[in-house]
User: Which sequence fits this backbone?
């Protein structure tokens, strides 16, 4: 498993997609932090979430994971991957772990950048700043969210071989289906894996995250369990499909 | 035990019988050509052997074990499939680094196999999307050599190679067999195969038509007896003389092919009637003739 995980991490490092999407994620997160830090007047109670909860790694690692596994089919590299690792379950497990690790890395990079920029702006403006412990706690929660979404993305990507369909489907699920469910049936939408559960795991309220005040998010621990259930379900179905598929 | 043993492999795609009860073996130290017309089931057979396609029946074994049961598959079997694909944004070297890591091969093997397939550092560090077909094929072969495998399986390896590349490929196949490795190579380039292989396996419509040493199969295909190739200064006169002896003739651009007789007989007729010959010899059956004979009846 270690060898396969190493191979998957080399795959991630040696294409431009990971670097490009990580760069975009860092840039967007920094922009949000900079704008909020410069334009708002956060209080001591609100500063952590207002200025430092701008980590976009969850969404980007989700996209990256879907692109990563569906790209194996698109570029037909799945053949050489499975020749090197004929046990398809081990292959999928290695990919899942690799994207979870990549999610953690991306999130930590963003958190470091956001912390440096946010603290600088707040200090210059003589506004209250969060405690180091609070920042560390937020960083750990964001890293957990990114890791789980990275793993979830591999499961989703394993279900759909067509890369365009997979990515478009992901965007529709995230921005249309789950958003609509939050507005119409919030009691169901609280289990949504794209917005509701990540927000709950990050310890942010629905109102702070702009998800409306109707949505009652799960407690962070329960949200983690619910997210693991989503990952398990997607992984199980994806693995079953992968094992059955003939590579003609 | 054979290096590769195909036992009753069968594959159906819906109502299409791609491969039916196919059995043959590939021995170590020999190059075996795997031949068949387009759609004969060659690629499906290789993919079943490698665990990429699930057979409906039968099995493909390496030293008695299925590919997926080999402890270190890429150290035992090196594979180039016809559609060898690479991530276009990854360099050739990084492609090999991925495979070396997955196969638990030492990182130094990457540089060694790049040198072996004559892909220089500049080419190796370029992204694969800028590679020519020939460079891609060399990279694919480099990947097969990473684990220094006992068995090589190559599906149409000469595709995209220029004449020097084809010669290089031929020498590579022969050198690998000389090291005691089993080499199974599928190809539609019959003349190329004839120069490279020791044994051939011919399939058509997913069914085995023939297998065995090349010489034996060429001899067996020559069922109508010897054929003599002769060319004379006065070809029309020689043709009339030979037909007068009851010899069946075919004419091909001034060359006469006399069926059922040895060159000595044709030479004697020409000498008796003082016809000057320009060329005289036995016409060897070609692999193409044998291939067509073995597959034609089953179209």
Assistant:
């Amino acid at each position: 498993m270690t060898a396969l995980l190493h191979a998957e991490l080399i795959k991630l490092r040696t294409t431009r997609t990971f670097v490009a999407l990580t760069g975009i994620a860092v840039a967007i997160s920094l922009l949000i932090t900079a704008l909020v830090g410069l334009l708002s007047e956060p209080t001591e109670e609100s500063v952590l979430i207002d200025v430092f909860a701008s980590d976009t790694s969850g969404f980007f690692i989700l996209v990256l994971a879907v692109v990563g596994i569906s790209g194996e089919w698109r570029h037909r590299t799945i053949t050489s991957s499975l020749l090197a690792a004929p046990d398809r379950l081990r292959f999928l497990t290695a990919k899942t772990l690799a994207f979870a690790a990549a999610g953690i890395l991306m999130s930590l990079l963003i958190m470091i950048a956001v912390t440096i920029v946010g603290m600088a702006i707040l200090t210059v403006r003589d506004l209250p700043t969060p405690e180091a412990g609070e920042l560390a706690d937020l960083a750990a929660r964001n890293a957990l969210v990114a890791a789980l979404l990275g793993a979830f993305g591999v499961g989703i990507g394993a279900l759909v071989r067509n890369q365009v369909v997979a990515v478009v489907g992901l965007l529709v699920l995230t921005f249309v289906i789950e958003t609509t469910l939050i507005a119409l049936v919030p009691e169901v939408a609280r289990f949504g894996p794209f917005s509701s559960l990540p927000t709950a795991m990050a310890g942010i309220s629905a109102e702070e995250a702009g998800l409306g005040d109707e949505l009652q998010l799960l407690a962070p621990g329960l949200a983690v369990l619910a997210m693991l259930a989503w990952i398990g379900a997607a992984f199980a179905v994806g693995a079953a499909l992968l094992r059955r598929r003939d590579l003609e | 035990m054979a290096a590769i043993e195909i036992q009753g492999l069968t594959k159906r795609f819906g109502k299409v019988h791609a491969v039916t009860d196919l059995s043959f073996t590939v021995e170590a130290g020999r190059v075996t050509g795997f031949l068949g017309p387009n759609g004969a089931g060659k690629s499906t057979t290789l993919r079943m052997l490698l665990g990429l396609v699930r057979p409906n029946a039968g099995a493909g074994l390496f030293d008695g074990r299925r590919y997926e049961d080999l402890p270190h598959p890429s150290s035992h079997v090196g594979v180039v499939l016809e559609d060898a694909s690479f991530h276009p944004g990854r360099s050739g070297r990084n492609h090999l680094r991925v495979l070396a890591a997955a196969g638990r091969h030492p990182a130094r093997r990457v540089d060694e196999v790049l040198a072996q397939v004559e892909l220089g550092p500049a080419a190796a560090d370029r992204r694969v999307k800028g590679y020519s077909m020939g460079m891609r094929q060399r990279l694919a072969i480099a990947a097969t050599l990473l684990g220094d495998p006992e068995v090589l399986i190559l599906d149409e390896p000469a595709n995209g190679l220029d004449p020097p590349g084809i010669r290089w490929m031929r020498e590579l196949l022969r050198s690998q067999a000389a090291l005691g490795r089993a080499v199974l190579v599928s190809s539609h380039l019959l003349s190329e195969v004839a120069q490279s292989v020791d044994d051939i396996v011919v399939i058509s419509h997913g069914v085995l038509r023939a297998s065995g040493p090349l010489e034996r199969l060429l001899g067996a295909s020559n069922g109508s007896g010897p054929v003599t190739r002769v060319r004379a200064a006065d070809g029309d006169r020689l043709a009339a003389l030979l037909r007068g002896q009851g010899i069946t003739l075919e004419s091909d651009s001034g060359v006469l092919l006399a069926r059922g007789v040895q060159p000595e007989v044709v030479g004697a007729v020409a000498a008796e009637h003082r016809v000057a010959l320009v060329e005289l010899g036995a016409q060897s059956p070609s692999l193409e003739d044998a291939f067509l004979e073995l597959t034609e009846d089953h179209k």
Chain A is about 75% helix and 0% strand. The first helix of chain A runs from residue 2 to 13.
